[in-house]
Amino acid sequence: MPPEVPAVEKSVKSRKPLLSWKFWLGLFLSGLMLYLALHKVNVREFSDALQQVNYLFFIPIVFLTIFSLWLRALRWGVLIRPLKKIGIGSLFSATMIGFMCNNLLPARLGELARAYALGRKEKIKASSAFATVVLARTFDGLIILLTFGFVVLLAPMSFPSWLNSGAYVALAVYLLVTAFMLFVRHQNRQTRIIMHRLFSPLPEKARVKAVGLMDSFTDGLEILHSLSGLLLASAISAAVWMPVALSYYLLLQAFSIQLPLYAPLILVIIISLGLMIPSAPGYLGTLHYASILGLTLFAVPKSTAFSFALLLHASQFIPVTALGLVYLFKEGLSFSSLRASSRVLP
What we know:
- By secondary structure, the chain is mostly helical.
- It has one domain.
- It is built from 15 helices and no strands.
């Protein structure tokens, strides 16, 4: 187990962590989005839509969902390889645990939990593993935005201003994160100087720990020195979203909703941007409202769009949570130890 974890676990056992402002913000935004999703939904139309669904489509949809997560684990292995070559079994296990935690725990703790789970099993520092998680999420964001640019050029339709604005905001966020990681990796000495200045008011022990965490985080960005590694990670990142788009297409077919072939890509873009918004566990509300916004661009009735969103959420939440729980107990972990990961890293 990495040396930075045990003390954290002891602190968690000694006192119950308080709910943070992130939890309350996510709960508020989820409630707001859920209200907007449910507003003016016709119960009879909603019920009729659910009754007409061909539920056999859920078999390949679940498979595609899990396959997409397996591809994420494969990409994670590429990003973390400069630190240690790790087998796909450990990577997939930690990935499923992380996404399960995002479904059940507040404040997106799954991102920290999967870094903790992998670090604990493979004896690498959790903060180094977390750096690769941040890098993976950045790849996801940039691929989604590139896809949006591709769709804008080729799709014979105009896009609403809120979607364009959301894409610009997301682009700014991901470019800032990318610039930060490049600076930290390539300007290590300057980073340490800045860290010492920022944490100079803290006691020496806390300051040393903070700088140590940043050093470990920087180690996790070693892949940025490998062009071949970055190209491979980029290719896998593009592949990650193909089964997602195909699962959306199949769900549309389950509802007998006939839309252009590029419609699933637009749904992927809008839903992905929507999931950037803080929310309650399981992306409650944000996924539903984003799905409705995407489908209403194609004149799908809101009641049908909400039923689509509900089943999309179920197709992702249930299998991912169930498999994540299996791996949680298989690895001998507990929710208390996973919550400890929120104290290991900022």
